[in-house]
Amino acid sequence: MRVILADDHPLFLEGLVSLLEARGIEVVGRASDGAEAVELTRRLRPDVVLMDLGMPGVGGLEATRLISAEMPDVKVVILTVSQADADLFEAIRSGAHGYLVKNTSSTDFFDLLDALDRGEAPLSRGLATKIIRHLASGSATEATQLTPREGEILRLVAEGKTNREVAADRSISEETVKFHMTNILRKLHLENRAQVVAYAHRRGLAAPEADPPQHP
């Protein structure tokens, strides 16, 4: 296994290098920020990048998104102190293949790294349960991230209204509607208007269609 390490704490990096090399794992590069991690990954094409989240400049999440989009054959595993749900879920959405916390024992750490070769996602204890619960909830928490105005616009778009019609309905400009739509796409991790409509209908966020009038 060829590995790049990305972390802005030199002492931690030194210890991790020693730990990995003692197990016969080749550390081919070290980065102190996300931008450097992306550049090293482009140049060295490792099997795995062990990525910290909180680094100066380009952070670990942005670097993970860039590597996953450009070099999907490289497996990015987050290695961080954070156990926050938001960091965990955003890392997985960004393309991370696993998420390990730094208080993991060395035995568990290597067992979890070995899981990569078996096609599994290495996750520190307790994190897999969080992900399962999140998926089981239908990702309802994503919708709660929308502001009330974004929720209104989501409902109107799901009803088939154009940006101009939404603007007229809410007494705002079309540019404001576009701004809110950009935020909705970002927060819900969607790519286009059609996905927004499908999302709203799956979640029951769109108003039900009215029954056609009955003629005697």
Q: What tags apply to this protein structure?
A:
single chain; 216 residues; alpha/beta; 2 domains; 11 helices; 12% strand; elongated
What does this structure look like?
- The protein is an alpha/beta fold and 216 residues long.
- Helices cover 53% and strands 12% of the residues.
- It has helices spanning 10-22, 34-44, 60-70, 85-93, 106-117, 127-136, 140-144, 148-158, 163-170, 174-188, 193-202, and strands at 2-6, 26-31, 48-51, 75-80, 98-101.
- It has a five-stranded parallel beta sheet with strand order 2-1-3-4-5, with helices on both faces.
- The radius of gyration is 22 Å and the shape is elongated.
- The N and C termini lie far apart (75 Å).
- Residues 208-216 have low confidence and may be disordered.
How are the secondary structure elements laid out?
Elements: E1 2-6, H1 10-22, E2 26-31, H2 34-44, E3 48-51, H3 60-70, E4 75-80, H4 85-93, E5 98-101, H5 106-117, H6 127-136, H7 140-144, H8 148-158, H9 163-170, H10 174-188, H11 193-202
Parallel strand pairs: 1-2, 1-3, 3-4, 4-5
Helix pairs in contact: 2-3, 8-10, 8-11, 9-10
Please summarize what this structure is.
It contains 11 helices and 5 strands; from the N terminus they run E-H-E-H-E-H-E-H-E-H-H-H-H-H-H-H. It has 216 residues and is of the alpha/beta class.
CATH class value of the largest domain:
Alpha Beta
What summary fits the major beta sheet? 5 strands, parallel
Distance between the termini: 75 Å
For the secondary structure, the number of strands is: 5
Radius of gyration: 22 Å
Instruction: Estimate nothing, just give the exact number of structural domains.
Output: 2
